[in-house]
Amino acid sequence: MGQLIKSDIGVEVLFVDCGGWDNHVNEGGVQGQLSNLLKDLGQGLAAFHRDMGDRMESIVFVTMSEFGRTAKENGNRGTDHGRANCMFVMGGDVKGGHVYGKWPGLAEHQLNEGRDLALTTDFRSCWGEILAKHVGVPDLAPVFPGFDNNSRKFAGLIRRSWRALL
Asked: How far apart are the C-alpha atoms of 161 and 144, rounded to whole Å?
């Protein structure tokens, strides 16, 4: 990915699939398979950031998953598919160091169906803000048909509008 960006051929959006996360047993603690995956992800993100250097000022990097994990462990010392998850976002236009969205809590009454984190922020709101403010997409309706992606509802995770860069 870094080589494509550095080649200056006009790459605007890249997608990388990182598999191996769909495990349901023996996720373990500090030495477990989930911990190892998160360590690899963190080290990879740090290496990418270092490799891009000053180019990170014009990059917005997003991690996301198509499913969350349950808040409670299952009978096999793992977790199952859940509703909510988190996205990590980094780059020059990102107002970092914050958690955007509401923390629903882990108490029984705060969990969805007693097992999942409650969904508080639709991923399309995050992507909508990135596409509108960083990429400069003027109309999000074709990207997210039927979704109310009003800019007044954006979380404020992007520092400036792409128009400010012109």
From this structure: 20
Longest dimension (CA), the chain: 55
Which one, of 110, 134, 132, 123, lies nearest residue 65 by Cα?
Answer: 123
| CB atoms closer than 10 angstroms to residue 160 | 12
Collapsing DSSP states into helix, strand and coil, what is residue 68?
Answer: strand
CA distance 84 to 93: 25
pLDDT at 162: 61
3-class secondary-structure state, position 86 = coil
Most confident of 10-24, 25-39, 93-107, 151-165: 93-107
Quick check: 33 pLDDT over 90? no
Which among 70, 71, 84, 160 is positioned nearest to 122, based on CA atoms?
Answer: 84
Q: Would you place residue 133 in the very low, low, confident or very high pLDDT band (cuts 50, 70, 90)?
A: very high
Phi, psi at 90, each rounded to 5°: -140, 155
